[in-house]
Amino acid sequence: MKSKLKLEELVQDTRVSRKIYLENEIFMLEMERIFESNWVFLGHESELAAPGDFKTLTIGTQPAIMTRDEHGDIQVLMNRCMHRGSTVCQQERGNSPTFRCWYHGWTYNSKGELIGVPYADGYGAGFDRRKFSLLKAARVEKYRGLVFASLEADVERLTEYLGNAKYYIDLFMDLSPLGEVEARAGEHKYGYDGNWKFQQENGVDGYHPNFVHQAYFEAQGKELGRKVMGLFTGNSECDSKDLANGHSILDMTIKNRHGTRPVRNMLRGSTSQSSGAAYVASMTQRYGEARTAEILGASNVNLAIFPNLLIIGIQLRKTIPVSVTRTAVHLLPTTLKGVPDEINVARLRAHESFYGSAGGGAPDDVEMFNRCSEGLRVKGAEWLELSRGIEREHRDEEGNIVGHITDETPQRAFYRRWRALMCDAAALQPAKPLRAVPSL
Ligand code: FES
Ligand SMILES: [Fe+2]
Questions:
Q1: Is there a domain that residue 4 lies in?
Q2: Where residue 358 falls among pLDDT bands split at 50, 70, 90?
């Protein structure tokens, strides 16, 4: 009989077992030890502009509601009626000051408090509706408009968790001369028959673009296509970085050393000279010349925030585990506050051209996830190789591990964190109950 690998042996320094993509038992542990015990990305606060705005989502696979209460605070409620368990909200998005369960009519306010019970006298004098508030995420914090929640209360502050990734989030947000982006331009979605980790690995994989996306790059025209492909060759000057805590980046800011690139490139679209000039002027007024050059020069990044957020191009991309071999992905393209409309339109059109459902790029990545899922059914080969570049990595002055852009440094960063959460001594203790607390 073949010996079974233990959990801590499935993810090693330079290789991972195919089982972590295929076995339901491991998926269930990931939900508990990663998604239900730590910070996860939920959305952008601009999605909930007005009191009562809400959207439904999942934390791991548990249904939840993110809503803005009448005081303007963001609440994260578990979408589970405290009567007999039905979800209390079905809509993806909307505006409502209350959530009424369809089953027997119990009604909750946007803080999750039970405010209505039909025919309440049937419960007798001892019934205390304060004991039946919706469960809530134990922690909710924001950074530059990005909303994260944790079902476990005992986690570090979000700013500590984000650590060195904050520098790159700041660059993304500071592309607006007001320092704010909005995620109100719609949301587009796709899904694939494969494990959620494929998407998170791929968002910071600088080894694949010249193969998976070759046709798209070539279709951009000779000069531009060659330029983009040059970023991802073995001779590229660009880096990948392990930013700690599982976060990582493909950092294409090297061009900044040779001066700021034209606004047109930075925006990933075409704008008129007058719009571009007005934009640069407003940026310079707000940030000064040096910081403006830094922001514009560093806007080409693919940033992964463990476990479920990717910031790529103009988008916030959320990876949503559905089952061990099914994943949903939601893309929120952002617009910049305080810029001419023409610039935001150019950003959106450029985004659609690669990432849209009929775009030239993202569908090809999804095809790779499907193929990996299929190929990994071969039982004779256990391991996926992640050793590329391990012998040429170094640490920079910020403590990041730096590899070449085509190296598997980001994937090793992801799995170092995965292993720490899934396999450390504390995490190997028996499962705790639901890590959400009553809202009392
Ligand atoms: S299950 Fe919600 S009111 Fe009965
Ligand atoms: Fe790709």
A1: no
A2: confident
Please name which ligand lies nearest the alpha carbon of 213.
Answer: 2
> Where is average pLDDT lowest: 44-58, 72-86, 163-177, 285-299?
285-299
Number of domains within the chain: 2
Angle at 289 between CA 285 and CA 290, to 5 degrees: 135
Question: 243 by DSSP, 3-state: which?
Answer: strand
Give the CATH number of the domain where residue 136 resides.
2.102.10.10
> How many separate helices (H) and strands (E) can be counted in the chain?
15, 25
Q: Which ligand is nearest to the CA of 85?
A: 1
What domain range includes position 379? 164-423
13: in domain: no
Which of 265, 251, 283, 255 is closest to 401 using CA atoms? 251
In a domain, 95, yes or no: yes
**Cα separations in angstroms, 294 against 154, 260, 267, 357, 434:** 36, 8, 14, 32, 44
Based on the domain organization, do 137 and 194 belong to the same domain?
no
CA 339 – CA 341 distance, rounded (Å): 6
Q: 110 and 219: one domain? A: no
State if residue 84 touches ligand 1 by the CB under 6 angstroms criterion. Answer: yes
Q: Is 439 in the pocket of ligand 1 (CB under 6 A)?
A: no
Residues 367 and 404 in one domain: yes
Nearest to 410 by CA among 424, 393, 423: 393
Torsion-angle region of 244 (φ positive above 0: left; ψ -120 to 50: alpha; else: beta): left
List of E strands, 151-282? 181-182, 188-192, 239-244, 247-251
Is the pTM higher than 0.70? The answer reads: yes
